[in-house]
């Protein structure tokens, strides 16, 4: 009997491209939060954090990445995608949560 191999974050992150997935998710998120009619003070602050990704000198020595932001704000992100019925983004968010969170 041959079992289908699939990535398991509890064993190894091999086969999981968390960085690419989270970068893609941020692009899907930006489609919403860059629209002034969909943004608010929270998302404007979030965009400031997103702008500091990969720039520890701009963030008190701490190096942020997109995956960290997804982990930190997963519920806010999910709520926004649900509000705008963005099924593709919700699917990717579910995958990231399952594989990387």
TrEMBL record:
Gene that specifies this protein: cowN
An individual GO BP term: nitrogen fixation
Top-rank taxon, per record: Bacteria
InterPro entries: CowN
Keywords: Nitrogen fixation
Protein name, as recorded: N(2)-fixation sustaining protein CowN
HAMAP family: CowN
């Amino acid at each position: 009997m041959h079992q289908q191999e699939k990535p398991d974050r509890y064993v190894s992150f091999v086969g999981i491209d968390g960085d690419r997935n989270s970068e893609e998710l941020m692009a899907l998120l930006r489609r919403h939060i860059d629209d002034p009619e969909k943004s608010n003070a929270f998302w404007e602050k979030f965009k400031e954090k997103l702008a500091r990704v990969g720039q520890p000198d701009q963030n008190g020595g701490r190096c942020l990445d997109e995956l960290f932001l997804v982990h930190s704000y997963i519920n806010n992100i999910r709520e926004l995608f649900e509000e705008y019925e963005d099924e593709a983004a919700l699917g990717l968010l579910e995958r990231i949560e399952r594989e990387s969170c």
